[in-house]
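Example 9 (inverse folding). The structure is encoded as follows.
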């Protein structure tokens, strides 16, 4: 059974940094595609960053140059380093995984497993 557990959410001031972690069990990081999504109140869940089994990455335009997705296959952990945070980054952040390790996608429909979410709040 695949399980994903996020951590690292917090409240920070604009311009600050946070690193989210997502520890997975029941699968191997190297054989899954993974992604980070976020959902603000009243908005749809959007794909922020993704990484496939080859290690290729994809980012939403709104976070390019500020966020970095990475993974440690030995620890079965996915990370999202977030720098230069803005108030509009405030949202619940979710990690997601899918067995189709070859896909590089930020479409939520392409992911079958989800974590419970971690709240990130950025104040101005």
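The amino acid assigned to each position is listed next.
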């Amino acid at each position: 059974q695949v399980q994903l557990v996020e951590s690292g959410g917090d409240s920070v001031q604009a311009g600050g940094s946070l690193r989210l972690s997502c520890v997975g069990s029941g699968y191997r990081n190297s054989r899954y595609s993974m992604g980070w999504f976020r959902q603000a109140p009243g908005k749809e869940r959007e794909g922020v960053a993704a990484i496939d089994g080859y290690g290729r990455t994809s980012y939403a335009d709104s976070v390019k140059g500020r966020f970095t997705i990475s993974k440690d296959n030995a620890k079965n952990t996915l990370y999202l380093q977030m720098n230069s945070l803005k108030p509009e980054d405030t949202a619940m952040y979710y990690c997601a995984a899918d067995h189709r390790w070859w896909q590089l996608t930020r479409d939520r429909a392409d992911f079958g497993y989800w974590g419970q979410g971690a709240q990130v709040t950025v104040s101005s």
